[in-house]
Write a structure and sequence with these properties.
five-stranded mixed sheet, 12 strands, about 525 residues, binds protoporphyrin IX containing FE, alpha+beta, Cytochrome_P450_Monooxygen, globular
Length: about 525
């Protein structure tokens, strides 16, 4: 009898314990998915911001998806080659365009159970950012987790003193002298691509989808400039790097939704496995490189420069980069650097195809500054002024990095408002670049000359043009892009003229970056 009752007592206690643990767990989840976000939301609302009504657990994601599908159906039923409009904000982000009309340029919306402060007002942005140093900003935790396989804890994601240390060590690698030494990698890869184009044109196939070609070449250039691999010996790394980007895009559609990753379990597992494979491959490259005496060629890429810098940092008794950190930086350079630059070139070719007068002007400038020869002297690229205006105008109309994210790491005072510690922020670059009140009536026209006299393109707010971000966390690779853009465009314009193919359908959309949904087919002629 006594035995039975102690067994019963034990069972009852175990059940009570399990129930208690379950309660604590459920309570913890409710607290972090419901109570905390709601409290953050209330504090933001107290400032007078409003926004679309969210639903648990998707926030505004369902509405965003619905609006995207509606927009896509509209554009597929309208004539594919109707006017190519540069008025892309309402096409690429129909939900933001609609919410802005109802709630203004600063509003609150929800990704899953995470409230975000959406900002498309440059004056608000300026006031919020003016007193805060680069190191004091955070990146939303919700993105850190999702993008871990791509960027790890590299420069784009790292925060605080660690960001200061890394930026300090990495910056010299991007000096103009070092970047000019990388120009030969760019010429080599671009020439290979263009030889392929010439062969196709000469064999009677003048139509080429340049988007895919340029992204692939830019990937090769970034792999060479980041960690010195050539297409032949680094094919495996390159293929894996590209694969992970597509997989990750599919697996992060439910960002912010509790257990959102499990809604796409196959992609989530694949992204994790690919991330590990890439890390192992890069670790192998880094270990081999750091163990052997650097050859002249190995020294010139970004990894070589960081390894060399590591030695001097070591000798100054400061903390050098660990292999783990070097892996993350190599991945970050590759992912942050190749598609952005490739898309800047792709959108430029679209504009030049429909504005042949600008093709002509740039060709004349190239002849004058660089000459007719095949050899490009990188020291002369800075003198390609008109090409610089064209690049800025394309980055304004089609910014490849269409938005920035931040998370406040302490309360921020903006006039009489308080943006509370922990607030996630979404800064809409596309919206600001297409805002008529900032740029004037011709905001959606392609007019490179607006950058002739003014580096801000005549925008009536200095924070209204920010293709490379701003403040201390401005893009570290912008000078590299400048060189690569000018080299590739110079080579293309020197060899070919081109027009838009009737098969082109204008549908800019977001796949992490802003890209043409159906590629960019152009019709080429050799010069
Ligand atoms: C057209 C080309 C490019 C565009 C439009 C672009 C855009 C941007 C933007 C908007 C940011 C700010 C992100 C933020 O504040 O959250 C950024 C940061 C960054 N970019 Fe770029 N980028 C380009 C090319 C490159 C290249 C070629 C590289 C590398 C080799 C690169 C590496 C980075 C890194 C590492 C950061 C983080 C900097 C930091 O937080 O300290 N980018 N880029």
């Amino acid at each position: 009898m006594a035995l039975i009752s102690s067994l019963q007592l034990f069972t009852a206690l175990s059940l009570a314990m399990a129930a208690f643990l379950l309660l604590v767990m459920v309570g913890g989840l409710v607290f972090s998915w419901w109570v905390l976000p709601y409290l953050a939301y209330r504090k933001l609302k107290a400032n007078g911001f409003s926004g679309p009504k969210p639903n648990f657990p998707f926030g505004n994601l369902s509405d965003m998806k619905k609006q995207m599908v509606k927009k896509m159906n509209q554009s597929s039923t309208s004539s594919a080659l109707s006017i190519i409009s540069n008025d892309i904000h309402s096409t690429a982000f129909p939900y933001f365009a609609q919410w802005q009309k109802l709630h203004g340029k600063v509003l609150i919306y929800w990704l899953g159970t995470e409230p975000f402060l959406y900002i498309a007002d440059p004056e608000f942005l300026k006031q919020m950012f003016s007193d805060i140093k680069g190191k004091s900003w955070g990146k939303p935790n919700v993105f850190k987790n999702d993008r871990e396989p791509m960027f790890g804890n590299g420069l784009l994601m790292v925060e605080g003193e660690d960001w200061v240390r890394r930026r300090h060590v990495i910056t010299p690698a991007f000096s103009p002298a070092n970047l000019k030494a990388l120009a030969s990698f760019m010429v080599e890869s671009a020439t290979n691509m263009l030889d392929g184009w010439a062969a196709r044109i000469n064999s009677g196939h003048p139509e080429i989808d340049v988007e895919r070609e340029i992204i692939s070449t830019a990937g090769e250039i970034m792999a060479k400039t980041s960690f010195g691999i050539s297409y032949k010996n680094g094919r495996k790394v390159l293929e894996k790097l590209r694969e992970i980007q597509i997989t990750l895009f599919k697996s992060t559609r439910y960002v912010g939704v509790p257990f959102g990753k499990f809604l796409n379990p196959k992609e989530t597992i694949k992204a994790k496995a690919l991330g590990k494979e890439i890390d192992d491959l890069l670790r192998l490259i880094i270990t081999e490189r750091s163990n052997k005496p650097p050859s002249e060629k190995a020294e010139r890429d970004l990894l070589g420069l960081l390894l060399a810098e590591n030695k001097t940092v070591d000798s100054r008794k400061k903390r050098a980069f660990t292999t783990r950190e070097l892996v993350d930086e190599c991945k970050t350079f590759f992912f942050a650097g190749h598609e952005t630059t490739a898309l800047a070139l792709t959108w430029t070719l679209l504009q030049l195809a429909i504005h042949p007068e600008w093709q002509k002007q740039l060709r004349e400038e190239i002849k004058e500054v660089i000459g007719d020869g095949e050899i490009i002297d990188a020291t002369k690229l800075g003198r390609l002024k008109k090409m610089g205006w064209v690049m800025n105008e394309v980055l304004r109309l089609y910014p490849p990095g269409p938005n920035m994210q931040r998370q406040a790491r302490h309360d921020i005072q903006v006039d009489n408002l308080v943006i509370p510690n922990g607030t996630n922020m979404w800064i809409d670059i596309v919206s600001m670049h297409h805002d008529e009140s900032l740029w004037g009536k011709d905001v959606n026209e392609f007019k490179p000359e607006r950058f002739k006299e003014d580096i801000y393109g005549g925008c009536n707010h200095k924070v209204g043009f920010l293709p490379f971000g701003f403040g201390g966390r401005m893009c570290i690779g912008r000078n590299l892009t400048n060189i690569e853009y000018k080299i590739v465009l110079t080579l293309i314009l020197s060899k070919f003229s081109f027009t838009l193919s009737p098969n082109y359908s204008h549908a800019p959309s977001i796949m992490l970056s802003l890209r043409p949904t159906h590629g960019l087919p152009l019709i080429f002629k050799t010069l």
